[in-house]
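Whiteboard transcription, Tuesday session. T.W. wrote the structure tokens on the left side:
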């Protein structure tokens, strides 16, 4: 497996992989403890591992809901960013249009003034 792709995983994906690995390790440890006997240290280890696995049984749905909310929040954030970029681009275009209209109006007024000056100069030259 190429570990460069694992480094590029999203943090949520890494969290899910770690949680699933934890569940499998706990279940594997519980199976080993129960195979080697339920007396003495192995029995205590088995009970501890089973209790940890049962706690994970209740914690994993909560973590799943948190992960889903994070993914939904990221999608909403992405949608809002594209929406705001579109609004800014739209406003930028309208601002540019307003600037062009203002420049056109000032150029028209300058043309009128130049025409008046050229008319005056023609009258003076006659």
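and on the right, the sequence the group agreed on:
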């Amino acid at each position: 497996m190429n570990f460069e792709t694992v480094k590029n995983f999203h943090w949520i994906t890494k969290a899910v992989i770690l949680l699933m690995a934890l569940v499998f390790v706990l279940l594997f440890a519980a199976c080993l403890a129960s195979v080697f006997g339920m007396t003495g240290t192995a029995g205590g280890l088995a009970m501890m591992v089973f209790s940890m696995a049962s706690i994970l049984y209740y914690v994993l749905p909560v973590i799943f809901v948190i992960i889903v909310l994070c993914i939904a929040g990221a999608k909403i954030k992405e949608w809002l960013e594209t929406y705001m970029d579109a609004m800014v681009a739209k406003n930028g275009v309208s601002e540019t249009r307003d600037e062009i209209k203002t420049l056109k109006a000032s150029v028209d007024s300058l043309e009128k003034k130049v025409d008046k000056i050229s008319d005056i100069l023609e009258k003076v030259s006659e």
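Someone added at the bottom: The chain has one domain: 3-125.
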